[in-house]
């Protein structure tokens, strides 16, 4: 009878220990990869090169109102500085190229040294959550919210609303804007076949600063088709406050859109100065 090879228990234990150590090393090494949260296809936070802040900022959201279908319209303010800037992530539901900019802006802002002492930045995520969900320009009533503001040029039409502020989403932003006394409003949209920065009210030099940092051309509202009852018309011309309408290229990858405008957005938020006051005189009614 052939002797059965003797089971070498010591050797087996040694192999097991080596295996265990290797498995643990692998797990530790790979752990950050597994822990990454993938949002819109790109890893954030743990994937950021060392030295970059976490992109997961817990924002103190508050609900300003609700959409026709009952979705919350949320805003959050970060920073405590005297300059007050409002970023509106979207108003047309089929123009969501700025969604990554909206998502990434808080961390990028907080990473700029001294920014939170100079500026109070309010992020309004999306004025038209129903339109975003439905993929439509207007809200769930089919009204273009960006034609529903009490600007002097308001036009009563079914698709614009038969009177200003007939829609709950418009009212939520309207009331918030009047209370907030913002120095600058920036609102993200997208445009077929082009990208540019448009402004209304005393915001020409801020639009030029944006242009320098992004390569996006400045387009004056006076040279464009009329936009009756738009947020730009109401804030810029009726209230006389500076507003930038950021038009991304329609269909642009939202990460690429953020990458190419990140420096410009931060510049107009943080560096934007009191030029607006000097411009107020020049930009009187047009
Ligand atoms: Zn739009």
What does this structure look like?
This protein has 286 residues and is of the alpha/beta class. It folds into two domains: 28 residues; 234 residues, Zn peptidases (Aminopeptidase). The protein has nine helices and ten strands. Strands 3-4-6-5-7-10-8-9 form an eight-stranded mixed sheet. It has a two-stranded antiparallel sheet with strand order 1-2. The longest helix has 27 residues. The radius of gyration is 25 Å and the shape is globular. It starts with 8 loop residues before the first helix and ends with a helix. The N terminus and C terminus are likely disordered. It binds zinc ion. The site of zinc ion has 3 residues, from loops.
CATH homology group of the largest domain: Zn peptidases
Strand content: 15-25%
Structural class category: alpha/beta
The CATH topology of the largest domain turns out to be Aminopeptidase
- If classified by CATH, what would the architecture of the largest domain be? 3-Layer(aba) Sandwich
Order of helices and strands: HEEEEEHHEHHEEHEHEHH
Largest sheet: 8 strands, mixed
Low-confidence stretches: 1-7, 20-39, 43-54, 274-286
Helix content: 25-40%
Total DSSP helices: 9
Return Rg in Å: 25 Å
For the termini, the CA-CA separation is 108 Å
Number of distinct beta strands: 10
Number of domains: 2
CATH class of the largest domain: Alpha Beta
């Amino acid at each position: 009878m052939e002797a059965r090879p003797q089971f070498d228990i010591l050797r087996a234990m040694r192999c097991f220990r080596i295996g265990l150590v290797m498995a643990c090393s692998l797990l530790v090494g790979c752990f950050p990869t597994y822990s990454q949260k993938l949002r819109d296809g790109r890893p954030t936070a743990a994937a950021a090169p060392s030295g970059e802040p976490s992109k997961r900022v817990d924002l103190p959201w508050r609900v300003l109102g609700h959409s026709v279908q009952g979705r919350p319209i949320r805003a959050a303010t970060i920073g405590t500085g005297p300059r007050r800037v409002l970023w509106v992530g979207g108003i047309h539901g089929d123009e969501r190229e700025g969604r990554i900019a909206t998502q990434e802006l808080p961390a990028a802002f907080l990473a700029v040294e001294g920014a939170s002492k100079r500026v109070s930045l309010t992020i309004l995520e999306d004025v038209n959550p129903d339109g975003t969900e439905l993929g439509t320009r207007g809200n769930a009533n089919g009204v273009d919210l960006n034609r529903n503001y009490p600007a002097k040029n308001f036009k009563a039409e079914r698709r614009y609303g038969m009177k200003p502020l007939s829609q709950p989403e418009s009212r939520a932003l309207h009331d918030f804007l009047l209370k907030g006394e913002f120095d600058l409003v920036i609102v993200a949209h997208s445009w077929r076949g082009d990208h540019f920065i448009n402004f209304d009210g005393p915001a020409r030099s801020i639009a030029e600063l944006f242009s320098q940092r992004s390569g996006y051309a400045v387009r004056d509202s006076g040279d464009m088709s009329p936009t009756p009852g738009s947020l730009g018309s109401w804030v810029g011309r009726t209230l006389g406050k500076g507003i930038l309408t950021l038009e991304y290229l329609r269909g642009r990858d939202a990460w690429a859109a953020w990458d190419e405008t990140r420096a410009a957005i931060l510049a107009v938020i943080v560096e934007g100065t009191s030029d607006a006051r000097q411009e107020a005189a020049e930009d009187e009614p047009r």
